[in-house]
Every structure is written in C-alpha cells, then in structure tokens.
C-alpha cells in the first residue's frame, strides 16, 4: 500500500511564538494529520510530511531529492517522491523499493547509485535508480551478524571521503555483555568494510573488515562530517547501574557522541580505540556518584557487576581508553546524528528513555561545531551543549503517546527530515 493511501488528516507548518509555547498551525499538506503538537526551538518551524508508516527508522535523501524510509514494521524501504507546496514540502507519490532486508539501517553510496540496507543478520547492496525508484535483486555484502540478544539493529553509513568504505556497527548482546572485553566477540564495535570486495564475496562480520572503534555498548547512529571528513557516532549506554551497592542509574551513565577520525587519513590516531564498555562507563551526574568525588562529566568509572578493567587499563587511563567528545543525559537514547552541509552543526535524534523516572529525551537537539577544526564548540564535560530544536510538549505522555525521533536526513535545501517510529510519522524541520 502506498504511503499516500495510508495518510489521514491535515498537516501543520508551525511558527515559533515562544520557546516554551506549542507551535501553531500555518499550512497543510492534503490528507495528512499530525498526532502531536511539538514545541520548537527559536528560529525553527516544522510540518508533518507523512503518517501511517510502520515503524520508520533511519532515512536518507536520494540524488533526485526523494526520501527513502526504512520501515522496521515491514522490513521494507519506501520511497516518498517529494514536491514543494508553497513554503512546505509534501508527498507527491510513493512506492516500495525493496523488501525483507532492513529493520533500521539505510544508506546510499556517494554517487547515489547503490542503496544499502541492514538487518539483524546482514548488509545488502542494491543497484538503485533514483529517477524510477527501482533496484536490482540485491547482493549481500556483509553477513554473520545474527545474535539473538538485546540489540538487533545494525547502524550503517557510507563515506564521501572514502567511497569504497561502508561502516557497520553491532551492539552488545545484553545490557552487560561480558564477552565484549575481547574484540573477537565482534559486538559493541564499529567495523569498516570494502564495498567492492563485498560485492564479489560477502564479508563475514567477525572475521573480516577493520575495527574502527570498540567498547561502545550500542551504536545506533553513524555519520561523516561533510567538511572535515570525521566519523562520529552516538551511543546508548548501560542501564540499571550500581556503584558500591548504591543505585545510581537514574542520572548515569551518560549517553555520548564520539569521534573516530578520518577514514582515508594516512594516520588516524582514533582508529581502533577502545571506549570502555563493558568495564567502564561515562558519568553524566557526578554529584550522585558520591563514592568517587573527583569525577567530571564524561569521566569513565567502573560500576558494579561488570568485568574488571585491568585487562586493558584503568578506567581513567586515556591512553588505553578513549572518552566521548560530548555527553548527554542518561537513558535519552540518541539514535541518529547528521551534520549541516557547512559542518557548523550536528543534529541528534533522542528516542527517549524507558529506564528512567521521570522520563527524558523524545526530542531533536542541535550541537554547534567550530568551523575551524570540525570539533564541537562545547567541552567534553559540558552539560549545556544541546540546543532545543523539536520537543514533545509533555514527556509525561511518553513513550506511548508522543513522537519518538529516530532517523535524520538533510535535503539539498537544508530541510531536516525526522522519522518517528512509534507514531509512524515523518516530520520536516525548517530553519536548520
């Protein structure tokens, strides 16, 4: 069934009246009704592009300006052909592009001619025609990722700076996955693979590729800075942690944004670094970790019931263990990150908490970057790096009655598309 036939109601382009006031309707796409009235950060407006999708996850814009959506509910890719209607964008038509190969991940090659999808077990490459939205039968290029554990998604990303490379992340098999103290477990890890070699014979995930980073509990979003070429990831950290028998999980550990260097650099000092999981986790609220009085935001520490860190090095040994470049509130669950074309800002989708009371997350936020070096403006121990963009009016209704951001994609006009899996919607943010 096409998306247009599933859409209902009327969509609103909104204008910001005040930072804490819900947006007001100012324009509509025929046949689309948004379920919620988000509040907006200063300078932003939004519209609802589509509803009725089945758990839309990551998204990408193709070379013709169409939106490709990975629908986890149907394991398919849906193509939304877009058209401008006055000052908003709407769906002109839709079609299914590929089926049975994705529960989350989607990416396009630099030339836009190859579509990649990922699921629990594998990564598939399709020859893709952006004009017609057609694909070939597809070729499996990475295999051997099945593991019936906690995290079934496999975030993927391609590179403009290293066009033959695809990045594939695989999360832990449990909240505390003790086997991942060893790289050979091939979980809680980001690996890179040659696309051309994979098209000849599929890479085995555990045995093939190169390790870009490990000790990362669950990477659900990966991206490349378009200006400096740096690779960045967003991570969902551990749940239900204790320290010296004290429950500190409400505000710890921090979620994090991590830097992994430039793929095609002759010497990338970030390559292959360990980020601590499962032995060491980053602090978000040091004040609640009273037994370690000298911690700062982002510092790694060793909670209860996890492996001893001494096999690699102490948690505070930064020569042995890398630390995040920015940190975010516990359990807010960042699921994607995307840069503006000029590289001066990255937008992050926070899916929202399940392991915290009161709930937190359920928003899109902006992080500002320096134009001079491609690094965040704020320091690693900042608690104010996030700038509000699109938020639920009342997170008390979450997670069952609110939008939950997942995937992000910019088009050539700088419009930011945002998927919400639980509500089956696609939002568009203007002014990003």
Automatic annotation (TrEMBL):
Which SUPFAM superfamilies does the entry link to?
Soluble quinoprotein glucose dehydrogenase
Keyword Cell membrane present in the record's keywords: the answer is no
Keywords assigned: Signal
Which domain of life does the protein's organism represent?
A: Eukaryota
Name all Pyrroloquinoline quinone-dependent pyranose dehydrogenase beta-propeller domain ranges: 39-430
Phylogenetic placement of the source organism = Eukaryota, Fungi, Dikarya, Ascomycota, Pezizomycotina
Which residues constitute the signal peptide according to the record? 1-23
Q: What is this protein called?
A: Soluble quino protein glucose/sorbosone dehydrogenase
- State the organism named in the record: Dichotomopilus funicola
């Amino acid at each position: 069934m096409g998306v247009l036939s599933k859409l209902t109601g009327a969509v609103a382009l909104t204008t910001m009246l005040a930072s804490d006031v819900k947006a007001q309707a100012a324009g509509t796409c025929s046949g689309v009704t948004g379920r919620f009235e988000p509040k907006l950060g200063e300078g932003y407006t939004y519209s609802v592009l589509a509803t009725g999708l089945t758990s839309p996850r990551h998204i990408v814009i193709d070379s013709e300006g169409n939106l490709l959506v990975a629908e986890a509910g149907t394991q398919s890719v849906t193509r939304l052909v877009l058209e401008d209607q006055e000052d908003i964008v709407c769906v002109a038509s839709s079609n299914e592009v590929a089926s049975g190969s994705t529960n989350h991940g989607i990416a396009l090659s630099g030339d836009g001619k190859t579509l990649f999808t990922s699921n629990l077990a594998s990564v598939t490459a399709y020859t893709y025609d952006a004009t017609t939205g057609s694909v070939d039968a597809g070729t499996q290029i990475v295999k051997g990722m099945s593991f019936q554990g906690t995290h079934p998604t496999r975030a993927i990303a391609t590179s403009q700076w290293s066009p033959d490379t695809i990045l594939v992340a695989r999360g832990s098999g449990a909240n505390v996955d003790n086997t991942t103290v060893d790289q050979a477990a091939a979980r809680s890890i980001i690996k890179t693979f040659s696309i051309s070699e994979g098209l000849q014979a599929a890479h085995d995930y555990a045995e093939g590729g190169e390790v870009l980073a490990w000790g990362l509990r669950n990477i659900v979003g990966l991206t490349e800075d378009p200006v400096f070429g740096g690779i960045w990831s967003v991570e969902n950290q551990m749940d239900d942690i204790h320290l010296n028998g004290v429950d500190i999980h409400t505000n710890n550990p921090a979620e994090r944004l991590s830097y992994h260097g430039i793929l095609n650099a002759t010497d990338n000092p970030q390559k292959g670094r360990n980020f601590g999981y499962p032995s060491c986790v980053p602090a978000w609220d040091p004040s609640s970790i009273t037994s370690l009085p000298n911690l700062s935001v982002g510092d790694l520490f060793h909670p209860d019931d996890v492996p001893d860190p001494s096999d690699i090095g102490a948690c505070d040994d930064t020569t042995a263990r890398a630390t995040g470049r920015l940190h975010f509130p516990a359990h807010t669950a960042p699921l994607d990150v995307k840069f503006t074309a000029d590289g001066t800002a990255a937008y992050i989708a926070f899916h929202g908490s399940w392991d915290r009371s009161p709930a937190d997350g359920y928003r899109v936020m902006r992080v500002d970057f320096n134009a001079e070096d491609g690094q965040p403006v704020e320091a690693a121990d900042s608690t104010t790096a996030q700038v509000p963009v699109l938020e639920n009016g009342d997170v008390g209704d979450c997670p069952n009655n609110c939008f939950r951001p997942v995937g992000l994609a910019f088009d050539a006009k700088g419009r930011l598309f945002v998927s919400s899996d639980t509500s089956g919607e696609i939002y568009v943010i203007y002014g990003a």
